[in-house]
Amino acid sequence: MPALKDTQNERDDRRLPIDRVGVKDVRFPLRIRDRDQATQHTVATVNMAVDLPHHYKGTHMSRFLEVLHAHGRELTVSSIAAMPQELMTRLHAQKAHVEMRFPYFRAKRAPVTKAEGLLDYGVVFEVNAEGEAIDYVVTVEVPVATLCPCSKAISERGAHNQRGLVTLSVRFRQPIWIEDLIELVESSASCELYSVLKRPDEKAVTERAYDNPVFVEDLVRNVAMKAGAHKLIKWFRVEAVNYESIHNHNAWAVIERRVTRGTEGQQEGV
């Protein structure tokens, strides 16, 4: 067979390097360690990219899929961590980016009747490499319930409440359980969410939220205090959105910090 023309390797004269180029939204099976059940199987949506020097016309898209499939029919955390270095080697790049986004399920029992149901959370693994340096960030997306302190203070009957979504991203000193991050967030809200609730459970969670009102500002501060005190976390970013039930807008707050250990609980702003 005659040699085929390699257009990607042709020279480009526009002198514009590309920050990231690759493949996006590839679905692939993933096996993840589960604190509760040892192992959990899910499906990840995968993004993979490298940088491209200005003098190359294009990258070799097929090599991204070759690296992905080289790890077999199922990914693990260790194989994800190795991929950026493999991409840099295969594509002669200086930087590489791998992102895995997937649903993560936990079995939760209702607080009174103990009825069990599955609740899903969003999880993202993001690994960036530049030379020998590796940056690993884990993100959890945790739905919660919040009750407005102001509404409770001024109303004779009840208080408005709503669902919220907390997104917590962390860099860590040692591997940390996804469940630990989820529980850290849930304990910072007015009340956690459940999949199955009977009437006694509804009474319990409604009263729990009423007894623990939080603004969106309280929510991010509560998470930040606990993340900053966690011995394994060295950086975090917490974002909370309350999907307001009586306003035509959402409430939103963000805190990002580096965590140092020279002083107990010390946090540095970013």
UniProtKB/TrEMBL annotation:
Pathway: Cofactor biosynthesis; 7,8-dihydroneopterin triphosphate biosynthesis; 7,8-dihydroneopterin triphosphate from GTP: step 1/1
Primary enzyme class: hydrolase
InterPro entries: GTP_cyclohydrolase_FolE2, GTP_cyclohydrolase_FolE2/MptA
Superkingdom, natural source: Bacteria
GO biological process, one term: tetrahydrofolate biosynthetic process
Keywords: Hydrolase
EC nos: 3.5.4.16
Reaction catalysed by this enzyme: GTP + H2O = 7,8-dihydroneopterin 3'-triphosphate + formate + H(+)
Site (May be catalytically important): C148
Pfam families in the cross-refs: GCHY-1
Family label: Belongs to the GTP cyclohydrolase IV family.
Function: Converts GTP to 7,8-dihydroneopterin triphosphate.
The protein's name: GTP cyclohydrolase FolE2
